[in-house]
User: Fold this.
Amino acid sequence: MTATLTHTRPVRRQRWDRRLQWVAVHSLGVALGIMFTLPVVFVLLTAVMASDQAMSSSLWPTQWRFDNFVKVFERAPMLDYLVNSFTYSLLATAGILLSAIPAAYALSKIRWRGQNVFFMLTVAAMMLPPQVVTVPLYDLWVRLGLTGTLVPLIAPYFLFDAFSVFLLRQFFLTIPRDYIEAAKIDGCSEFQAMVRVLVPMAKPGIAATMMFCFLYTWNDYFGPLLYTGENRDSWPLSLALASFRGMHHVEWNLTMAATAVVMAPAIVLFVFAQKSFVRGITFTGVKG
Amino acid sequence: MRTTITAWRLRRGMTLVSAASVLLLTACSAAAGGSGDGDGPAAAPNKDDKISLVVYSKFTNREYPVVSAGLNRLKAKFPNIEIKHEGSQDDDKLTQSIRGGNPPDVAISFFTDNLGAWCSNGSFVDLKPYIDRDKVDLNVIPEAVRSYTEFRGKRCAMPMLADVYGFFYNKDMFAAAGLSAPPKNTTELFDHAKRLTQLNPDGSIRVAGFLPTMPFYNNQAQIWAPNWDARWLGPDGKSNLAASAEWKEMFTFQKKLIDFYGHDRLAKFKAGLGDEYSEDHAFHRGKIAMMFDGEYRTAFLKEQAPNVKYGTASPPVSDSKPNRYGGAFTTGTIIAIPKGAKNPGAAWELIKQMSLDTDTLVELGNGLKNVPSTMAALRDPRLEVDENYRPFLTMFDGGKLLPNPTTPIGDAHLKAVNDFAERWQAGREPDLEAGLRKVDAQINDELAQKGGGR
Amino acid sequence: MTATVPRTRVNAAARPARKVPRRDRRRRLTVLAFMAPAVLGFVVFFGYPLLATVYYSFTRYDLVNEPEWIGLGNYIRMFTSEPLVAVAAWNTLWLVVVLTLTRVLFALGVALVIARLKSGVGLIRTLCYLPALAPPAAATLAFVFMFNPEFGPVNRFLRLLGIDGGLWFNDPAMSKPALTLLVLWGSGELMIIILAALLDVPVSQYEAAELDGAGPIRRFRHVTLPSISPVLLFGVVNSIIFALQFFTQAIVAGGVASGSADVAGNTKYIGSPENSTLTYPVWLYVQGFRYFNMGYAAAMAVLLFVVSFAFTAVLVHQLRRASSAEENA
Assistant:
């Protein structure tokens, strides 16, 4: 921390300072790592406790009840919830592949009037609190008789998902247009250029976008609460979890076991695709 | 060649746009609702009709199969009817399903909180044409029960079973504290609570004689209010708690108990208690010695905590209203046909059976430990009555029951009072009357919002 | 970060010198085909509902009976007789100010530490980011459990230190700070964005500043801050929007901590304790989809739209500047 005065100090002192700084920064880093991990550790430890221990003042399980994870599935139709969650997340992710890639292509690789306007509208849509438009949308889905199903949640992804369009456009911009032009000189149509040239080159970006879409829908609570709240058969995990304790009269240990189950897929996904994730996140930041 | 492909693609795009706009137009002109909205009653089904009836209720775990069995008794009359009983459906989900146009054929609600809303906006079908057609005599149902199942003279629900909220006390703890009889008035309640409370060495609460925190378990304003003779609406149909001596007395008493324990200490104690319907309920675990609760608790205690020795009685009443003793808060499970139900005719047959058939009611009463809502079932010798259940039947027959007011605002008035109670017990509402005026303003605002000529 | 974005402009020479009308038309058709779903989606899911919300805000509508025009009635109710909308707006304002400040500063602080790490960067970065992936409903449940005043590990730990821990989610004064901690725990995304920006600052600039005798604080102010300020602005706007639509954590925490049997199902307990977790979007949801005052909810939505649009405009403006800078580069 005294780096300014280094040139007036003996070299040994300087080395000592650097070492001290190294220790300070690294212990801070380790402390942060532990801090961020502790809640998950608590969840996992409580998940394998006996029920009366979960509400007592001990941190370490006295008996390891791994069957709690089985019990969770017995007490509640967790499997149904799991299927609903996967239906919502996988279909939505498939939806953006069909809808967002062409839109992002048109926004980044073809020049047309209104391009900028639509891009700004996309950003505005991305930033819009979802509660603003819910009244007419709910009304619309009611009139179509589709509330209580997953359709109102999934359908929009097959037309327009602002965040995916935004993110893909940012990715596509990094791919030089020369490749597209070359493909077109070889006789490709825009569609062929997109499918054969751009998509293979943008795979990491597309993968990151898909993962964000999967995660967002997996974690979504407001949408399912609004549209599927009335019909338990359509509940995804996130919604079921919040009502889990009250509805199924379960104890804290089982609640934490269920919490761990809900957290797991996201974490597994991350472990397998950490690089894409980090790349994707940095792209959501505004380029300065 | 390529041009034609793109043009085709474009046309397809256009078709999509126009298809969607057509969809929107038709969507906007289509009214929500279904076949249940006709003027006359829907015909009863033929004996062998194959019908699938969807029933929503809030029953879970232990109670769910009992109710399913009761519902399936309809098969004796209509052997080909299939009943799809969906438990765990609370009022909010039911409302959403009706507004969403996907209602069940039969709706069962635990409470009458939302009856006014459902009746006034037409969410429930008016049952009068059915009652007239089948010449049903409603006088077999006690008067108080009839009053809480209709709204401004409109009968859009039938009672299924009734709940009466009495008083539970732990006999072992009473004996240990040298107490013999349950309290009859608030002075005794306060005194008992003090004597039954035990503290840990660090000063935290080990056992609370009586937990006064509101809202928690059945410490709900509507359940307490009858014991103080406190009424919700004035003669003008508006909320006027601020002018009511009874409400003030009730909250003053509650605050006295809160102060005896200390608000923060109570809050910590409360946070460590188990859920209302779980095995960890504080009364099951011996963490509270007395409480207000419904008659159905006897069944929970029997199954989840058979070793707890307890007694039941009429709830203690305000010192200034000794003649209220023997009265209690009553509400009940209601059963109705939602607007848009697909098989209203068959639904009515099921409702008749669930609300009027003595055999079904006795079976449900025994299984759920709820009070049957017809006189015939109430007096039926097959109804199992033990010493802990009898006080509830006595109260039910005693004529001093007070139900919730049926208003079109659902449970908004309960939220308003709960909000106030939280602030009041934390000491953040120094002026009782001013605080209650705010509650009145909130309730009356919501009443006005719903009033609007409808 | 500019450095990571390669130029995308093509040479003017690569473009055809003369516009071929036929080709031009074909390109237009292609654009139309590519954009049709997105435009349709935008119209159906954003354009139409935005306009319809404004219409509904002038009506009384309960989804059962047809909407009834009541003029400014809902707005008058909002500003005069309905008491909880002000409480809800205050809670959201609190979150906008406190969440935004703490989230940006915390993410910056953590990113600064990680940027200085020489070994174990990957592991620490992963650990700090992982909580951001946890579903908010699950994370909230975990936090309500951890902060349980009676048996939660946080208060037990504080007790070891001789501190009497608070009531957290059961105390109206502590519930929003507890929610803030929950958000900070999951702020990994912003952290990574800031970290990337930090690592993009050219080392040569630091070296130059160090040669000029600038201390760490001055180097931070004069080198780091200017280079990452666009990302920080993004973080601020993003956090404000996040706070404006804060819903899941609030509604779940209020329900679970109240100890009610129906966690998120029971309207009576939403906002517990003492409406301190009743955020503006939560109250909008209750008014619209629990009390079915759809017209009133629409009026609340219009107000929310106006406020959030103001902040969005800032971001859009910045994006515009960035893309025009790109154009001129």
Observations:
- Chain A has two domains: 3-47, 72-284.
- Residues 81 and 240 of chain A are 7 Å apart (CA to CA).
- Chain A touches chain C through 111 residues (CB under 8 Å).
- Chain A has a mean pLDDT of 86.
